[in-house]
Amino acid sequence: MTEELTDLERVVYDFIKKYGEVLTTNLPSKMMGVIPSLESKGQIEVYKRRTTPWSSKKKKFVRIKEA
Fold it and tell me: Does some domain include residue 2?
């Protein structure tokens, strides 16, 4: 499933896989540009959720899609 990834996409995929779910703002800036291509290939999913129960703001997270 991950055979068609470029070298940079593979690095970002492994980074996200290592940490589970990652806040998008915690990704290094060079890795941020690869997120849309990984999402379009179906490798990761981007979703929003609350980080604290009393806040109405949601933040973006990424995680590996389960097979």
Answer: no
Contact by Cβ (8 Å): 5, 31? no
Q: pLDDT below 50 — which residues of the chain?
A: none
Q: How far apart, in Å, are the Cα atoms of 46 and each of 8, 54?
A: 18, 22
Cα 17 off chain centre by = 9
Longest dimension (CA), the chain: 42
Structural domain harbouring 44: 7-64
Whether the full predicted model's pTM is greater than 0.90, yes or no, is no
Please give the tally of structural domains in the chain: 1
Candidates 17, 15, 6, 7; CA nearest to 65 is 17
